[in-house]
């Protein structure tokens, strides 16, 4: 496969604050890549550097064969984190205008805008002013505006934020559609479930550094599997089961029926532990082997919670 | 180039499509006409006041006649002024303009009061409280409308000087009071001169004297007498300077607001991913220039039409002043340079701000600096080669306005070329610096301050 995007040892510094440190990763053509990390991890700074909106302090970025995103801006579609369109424009005018800025003839832009708005269920709103649309509708219009010129590379910064579950599903379908049409998609998010469902590849970022690069399965594999046991069992008895490296009491009574979460050692399966539990006569009423989620993997890899804000602003505010 | 035109077109249409734009476009000429017509309307709508003069006691004898004479003399003076103004208008604008001016002046210089006979009951009632009470009645609505008065003036002469008690229908109306005061002052002066043994006819002759003054200058077209045509270039220069100032500030302010709106609506980042900051700024500057150009064309067209209709000769003279030596091209060059300097600066400031309050930190001092050319331009009309005017003309921020005002006085060529080169060089520097600041500001959440703005301009952010 050919790389659509390559970052090599990229860093970004704002005064005394190091936003991105020595970041390297690749996205192959046609992939959907999730760029994951909590707020303030350096995702937006990285995306802006990829687009050429901000220069990297050090390092090299190559996108669609160019050493500067600005040189191939017509082949890129971008949805920024903070969204907005001209309030007095109609959706159709706004989409055609942004398409025209990317080199799409106005007439063709209007035609595609009509079709895309129809597909997204916004046909009736196409001639209303943007200020009359709901937030979800406006967000859809902006997403359409960012892809109306059929870009080869789509960068979406927190595209799911502010959308209700129904619209989130719609957006997921749209992203899959873009990839199916051959576009490479890089989207940032701090909500791991979207990445789990969509991504061929994820890049985890924490405090400006890359914590992981690989597939979702690979990311999950970095985290131990978990066993959840319920019954009249003691922590010590569970800890003695084969493959169990740690036990945590998560629910139930201190005496009587309890819920315990056992962490399995790397490479250990749950079957040996289950077998040993029955052979040992433990009173196990429920036994559940849980595969680690991307969320678990993120916490394991970075020590951060993906929903927390690690930006300097948040740290300052907390102090 | 295509992106620049697209952004310019959007910028232009965003304003041109609004009703407010067309209203304000037409409002200025409308208010200009209204402003000119207002004094005429006010004057013509004033009623002619019915005034009664009552002399109290034998000592006051002659004071009523003095008031009537003073009022008549004042009116004669006004009529004389009117005749002179009409002649000047005819000279400047041809007979059509003279007629128009005459009509306007006729309306303004109509009589404002009329002295009527004292009603018999008021004349026969002895002075004191009963007479005052009767006077109050005539000033109110108790008597029939035909008999109502606007003012009753009781004239007295004490040992020292004449005095008066002026009763008026409206407490705010002091027109009669002014006439009576002037008349009594004249009467008293005449008394004083007479007491000193000076013949009253000599005093009267002195009062009538009006000196004939002829302005001459070797720089006038005739080489001698200075005409309105000789003074016209200075007036045109000053007017151009002011017009340029207001257009540049209006255009730059529109740009500031437009960028602020895009910043607050989070559009700048999307735009920056689709066009370079230079393309964006150029497009926006061009769009607003098209807008101000439209305003200038419409106002110019309406003004030219109005002038050609009312003062055709003046219109021709102004045209020849603008075309003589390509003066209009100087103005256009100064307009372009001035607009570029201020527009990019204001756009860069706007990129840091989401509300006008955010912009206040920088806009306050800038607006204070902008007052300087306004003050100096007025000096440039009379003394275009004054040292302060010449020195300040070299300051690029002031060049467009001061050189526009000075251009008709034919300043030295090295000053014209030097200041223009300086202005355009500075405008280019501003475009470069403002472009950097614009890009930094568009993506920044930093609060605007002189420090953050300077850092952005120098590329340190």
UniProtKB/TrEMBL annotation, chain A:
One of its GO terms (molecular function) is ATP hydrolysis activity. It comes from the Bacteria. Keywords: ATP-binding, Nodulation, Nucleotide-binding, Transport. Residues 300-319 are annotated as: Disordered. Belongs to the ABC transporter superfamily. The keyword Ubl conjugation does not apply. This is ABC-2 type transport system ATP-binding protein. SUPFAM superfamilies: P-loop containing nucleoside triphosphate hydrolases. Residues 5-232 form the ABC transporter domain.
Automatic annotation (TrEMBL), chain B:
GO terms for cellular component: membrane. Residues 91-101 have a biased composition (Low complexity). It is found in: Membrane. Residues 78-101 are annotated as: Disordered. Residues 78-90 have a biased composition (Basic and acidic residues). It comes from the Bacteria. InterPro entries: ABC2_TM. The keyword Oxidoreductase does not apply. The chain crosses the membrane at residues 21-42, 235-256, 285-308, 328-350, 362-381, 416-435. Residues 21-434 form the ABC-2 type transporter transmembrane domain. Keywords: Membrane, Transmembrane, Transmembrane helix. Its main location: membrane. This is ABC-2 type transport system permease protein. It comes from Brevundimonas variabilis.
């Amino acid at each position: 496969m050919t790389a659509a995007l390559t970052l090599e040892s990229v860093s970004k510094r704002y005064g005394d604050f190091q936003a991105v440190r020595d970041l390297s990763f690749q996205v192959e053509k046609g992939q959907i890549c999730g760029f994951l990390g909590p707020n303030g991890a350096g995702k937006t700074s990285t995306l802006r550097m990829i687009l050429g909106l901000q220069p990297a302090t050090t390092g090299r970025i190559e996108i669609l064969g160019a050493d500067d995103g600005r040189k191939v801006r017509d082949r890129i579609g971008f949805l920024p984190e903070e969204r907005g369109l001209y309030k007095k424009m109609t959706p159709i005018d706004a989409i055609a205008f942004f398409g025209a800025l990317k080199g799409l003839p106005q007439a063709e832009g209007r035609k595609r805008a009509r079709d895309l708005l129809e597909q997204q269920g916004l046909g009736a709103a196409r001639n209303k002013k943007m200020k009359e649309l709901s937030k979800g509708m406006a967000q859809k219009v902006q997403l359409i505006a960012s892809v109306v010129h059929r870009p080869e590379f789509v960068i979406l910064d927190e595209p799911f934020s502010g959308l209700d579950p129904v619209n989130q599903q719609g957006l997921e379908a749209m992203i899959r559609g873009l990839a199916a049409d051959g576009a490479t998609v890089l989207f940032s998010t701090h909500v791991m479930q979207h990445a789990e469902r969509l991504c061929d590849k994820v890049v985890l970022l924490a405090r400006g550094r890359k914590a992981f690069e690989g597939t979702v399965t690979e990311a999950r594999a970095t985290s131990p599997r978990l066993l959840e046991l319920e019954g009249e069992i003691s922590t010590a008895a569970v800890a003695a089961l084969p493959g169990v490296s740690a036990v945590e009491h998560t629910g139930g009574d201190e005496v009587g029926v309890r819920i315990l979460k056992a962490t399995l050692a790397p490479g250990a399966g749950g079957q040996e532990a289950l077998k040993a539990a029955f052979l040992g006569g433990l009173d196990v009423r429920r036994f559940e082997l849980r595969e680690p989620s991307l969320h678990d993997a993120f916490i394991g890899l970075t020590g951060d919670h993906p929903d927390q804000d690690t930006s300097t602003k948040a740290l300052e505010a907390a102090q | 180039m295509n992106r620049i035109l697209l952004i310019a077109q959007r910028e232009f249409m965003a304003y041109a499509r609004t009703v407010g734009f067309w209203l304000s476009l037409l409002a200025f000429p409308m208010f200009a006409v209204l402003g000119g017509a207002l004094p005429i309307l006010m004057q013509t709508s004033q009623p002619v006041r019915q005034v009664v003069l009552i002399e109290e006691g034998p000592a006051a004898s002659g004071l009523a006649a003095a008031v009537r004479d003073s009022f008549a003399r004042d009116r004669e003076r006004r009529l004389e002024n009117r005749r002179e103004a009409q002649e000047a208008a005819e000279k400047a604008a041809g007979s059509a303009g003279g007629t128009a001016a005459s009509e306007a002046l006729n309306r303004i210089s109509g009589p404002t009061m009329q002295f009527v006979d004292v009603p018999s009951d008021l004349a026969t009632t002895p002075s004191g409280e009963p007479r005052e009470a009767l006077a109050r009645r005539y000033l109110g609505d108790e008597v029939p409308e035909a008999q109502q008065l606007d003012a009753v003036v009781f004239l007295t002469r004490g040992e020292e000087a004449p005095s008066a008690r002026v009763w008026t229908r409206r407490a705010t109306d002091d027109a009669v009071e002014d006439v009576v005061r002037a008349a009594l002052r004249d009467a008293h002066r005449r008394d004083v001169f007479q007491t000193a043994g000076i013949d009253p006819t000599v005093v009267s002759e002195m009062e009538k004297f009006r000196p004939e003054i002829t302005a001459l200058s070797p720089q006038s077209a005739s080489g001698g007498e200075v005409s309105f045509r000789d003074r016209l270039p200075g007036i045109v220069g000053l007017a151009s300077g002011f017009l340029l100032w207001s257009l540049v500030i209006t255009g730059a302010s529109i740009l500031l607001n437009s960028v602020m709106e895009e910043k607050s609506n989070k559009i700048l980042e999307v735009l920056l991913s689709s066009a370079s900051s230079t393309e964006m700024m150029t497009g926006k500057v061009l769009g607003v220039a098209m807008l101000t150009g439209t305003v200038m064309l419409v106002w110019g067209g309406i003004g030219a039409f109005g002038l050609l209709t009312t003062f055709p000769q003046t219109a021709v003279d102004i045209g020849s002043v603008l075309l003589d030596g390509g003066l209009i091209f100087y103005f256009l060059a100064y307009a372009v340079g001035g607009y570029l300097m201020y527009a990019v600066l204001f756009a860069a400031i706007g990129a840091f701000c989401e509300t006008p309050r955010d912009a206040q930190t920088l806009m306050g001092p800038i607006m204070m600096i902008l007052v300087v050319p306004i003050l100096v331009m007025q000096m440039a009309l009379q003394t275009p080669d004054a040292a302060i005017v010449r020195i300040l003309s070299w300051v690029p921020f002031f060049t467009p306005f001061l050189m526009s005002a000075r251009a008709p006085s034919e300043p030295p060529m090295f000053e014209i070329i030097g200041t223009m080169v300086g202005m355009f060089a500075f405008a280019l520097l501003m475009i470069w610096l403002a472009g950097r600041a614009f890009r930094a500001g568009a993506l920044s959440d930093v609060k605007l301050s002189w420090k953050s703005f300077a850092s952005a301009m120098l590329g340190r952010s």
